[in-house]
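Subgroup meeting minutes
Present: P.N., E.W., G.H.
Scribe: E.W.

1. P.N. recapped why we're keeping a running log of single-chain structure predictions: easier to compare across weeks, and new members can see raw inputs and outputs side by side.
2. G.H. added today's entry (397 aa).
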Amino acid sequence: MRKAFLIFSLALLMGFGLAAPVCAEDGVTDTEIVIGSHQDLSGPIAGWGTRVKMGLEMRAREINEAGGIHGRKIRLIVEDSAYDPKKAIMVTNKMISRDKVFAFIGNMGSPTAGATKPIISRKKIPQMFPLTAASLFFDPYDRYSFAGFTPYYDQARIIVKTFKKEKGYTKFGLMYQDDEMGAIMKQGVEDELATLGLKLTAAESYKRGATDFSSQIAKLKKEDVQLVILATVIRETVGALKEAKKLNWPVDMAGMSPTYTKYVPLLCQKAGFSADGFYSVGQTPMIYADSIRPKVQEWWKRHVDWFGKEPDLPTTAGWAGVHYFAIAAERVGPDLTREKLIDELEKFRDEPDDIFGGPPYTFTPTNHQGAFYANLSVIKDNRFVVIAPNLYHKLPE
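Output recorded in log:
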């Protein structure tokens, strides 16, 4: 009898064990959702990273003050990568193992976010809207990685196609950063030229972190190119423009989205010259306090009230990452899991950008590119002005 009772008791305990609830998803409690992000807050592109951080914080605060997502408040953890892949890996591992983040939003930079992407995906953690337009975040397909920006590759092809069509240029030069970002931009330039029956006239590289670009610009001038495409970030762009001014070389120059920031004309002014005439590709019209879009004016004022600083386009990128995360998380419902979040993101079809006027977002179960359109702008009177809207290399299938 005693033996039978023991067997019955053991079976009962096992039954309770099997029926016990599964541990909650990392980063989600009854009251909060933990979001992680690594930014350059002290390195060469801290001008971008600090702005992205404010954008992340701004949208999280808006959501939290409105009651959260199904009652859960967003808790942001933002770590400094200093634009160093090794440090980015270190802080990412910390956020995964110690902070137990539910998802990553807006990780900064091609080399840094690229270094952490496989770590995050192996843990089956969603990563959204990295602050880079490198194709590696959606090609090849990765269920846990969602790009959010028109790819550098597409931007490069858009520049070549547009300047060939509008100005008849046939001699293209390139100055590019010798890393993942520069490589994919260079590939886009070369591929579009090939479709036009042309070849790259000259290409000059530089190491990430370089400050002297005199030899690169001098060599491109010697080749007499009609357009210098800059596969650069902020200070490298200013350095290239400055060298061209020194040589009294009135060549057209065009950059991609890393150059599309108000820091470029501002730093050029501080260096004693104007950036007027510089072309840049970006997917959202540049934001200004006197924008023709009333929602941008309201958003701008709120940002200044909260942070005491004017926003820049990278601010909108951080804001948008949290915004679209919240849309998907809200649609999941109270039972939020990583897999359900991904399922909702993959249902996005032309999800609009109602605030800033950028392209809509489309994700599918086989394509996580997200954005497909871009604008070509030029600096006039130290402000970016869109001159060719809604350009694209290819559209979503």
